[in-house]
Amino acid sequence: MGLEPEPLFQAWSYFRRRKFRQCSDLCTQLLEGPPGEQEPDSEYSVFQAAWSLKTRALTEMVYVDEIDMDQEEIAEMVLDENAIAQVARPGTSLKLPGTSQGGGPSPAVRPVTQSGRPITGFVRPSTQSGRPGTMEQAINTPLTARPITSASGRYIRLGTASMITNPDGPFINLSRLNLAKYAQKPKLAKALFEYIFHHENDVKNALHLAALATEHAQFKDWWWKVQIGKCYYRLGLYREAEKQFKSALKQQDMVDTVLYLAKEMNNMSSAAEYYKDVLKQDNTHVEAIACIGSNHFYSDQPEIALRFYRRLLQMGVYNCQLFNNLGLCCFYAQQYDMTLSSFERALFLAENEEETADVWYNLGHVAVGIGDLNLAYQCFKLTLVNNNDYAEAYNNLAVLEMRKGHIEQARALLQTASSLAPHMYEPHFNFAVLSEKVGDLQRSYTAAQKSEEAFPGHVDTQQLIKQLKQHFAML
């Protein structure tokens, strides 16, 4: 019979294997026992080490990468008092997709969000494509069960996760903490900051702790300057945040700090290299693995993407999204024996109707790929049963209706799709083609212009506009 591992070492092993719940529970048992003796060669006791490790485990449960591009919400657009130049210098604008120097993906190859950001392998708050990007779109968007909220409301909703992870209340009572005392212990202070900032979403106390720790470090620790910049950014004080990030860069040249300053450059090749560098440091980083896998899939390399998703499966990630991606990779890599079983497992693991809708939508694509259009029609219908504002499903159903000669049904479906997702070029282009076939040239031209605005590089749209202009010139 083997010896039982030391409890703290066991907890650290759970943490390294991303089993944060087991790590937290084991640390709780250690904290409930008598305080441990301090190791002769260590600065901290076992009790303090368990406290710090549990803090990190609770933080990782709800961690959201702040580097990601934030999509501007309605409240921010209305209440924003910052004045910026309306016209950018040529070649410097980052607002529109396709303006990057690094060869950003086109909507024809890889889906993009309303802000032009490519879909990645990791779902984050406020990065979904269904939310309105302008006030006009928000007013015209039909009401759904999901309210349109501001970014500040998102942080509040994320903060409720702290009550889920500990039914007895918060692990740390922030009102009773002496932050100045913790600021003098760098290792504990950093773990406490991450807990306050990510788990409790208490920016005020996080900023206070970061300021005290920076002062204790005599303003020589670049890490704390980055954290102060993150707090300023969360509070909307962008100029102050920029000063902190630049000051941190002078002390230590770090990729994360540069990304905080840039937020988004739409440079996919550089992003992939950065994610690979992340894996060299931490080969169990779920987000990096998922994003690299997604990038390979949209680069027409499903076999390589499949290896990354299988790695996630081996690490213990077991959810609907992973099996959904495995099913797609297997289908496009021509491993048909695993395709349907992966999608079946994804449907079984789906936790809500939106996840179920995604699986049925992808099954519809599989049906189109094997030529079973009746099955595809039913799959897209089931997509809308689970999520009635799924713009892509409306567009694909319209194409199937056009094949059957049902012009009016196709027209109605395309109008719905274009109103739900005005950033997609496909519904506008399909509506333009449909209108041109039935002789409604004015509507065709209007829709084609919207398609060109959504995707300036679409060749078929440009050809259609050219044909319509020639026809109008002959009149």
Give your account of this protein's structure.
This protein is mostly helical and 475 residues long. It folds into four domains: 61 residues, no CATH class; 110 residues, Serine Threonine Protein Phosphatase 5, Tetratricopeptide repeat, CATH 1.25.40; 46 residues, no CATH class; 164 residues, Alpha Horseshoe (Serine Threonine Protein Phosphatase 5, Tetratricopeptide repeat), CATH 1.25.40. 63% of the residues lie in helices and 0% in strands. α19 runs antiparallel to α20. The N and C termini lie far apart (92 Å).
Task: Please give the largest β-sheet.
Answer: none
- Envelope shape: globular
In CATH, the architecture of the largest domain is Alpha Horseshoe
Q: Which stretches of 5+ consecutive residues score pLDDT under 50?
A: 97-102, 125-131, 141-165
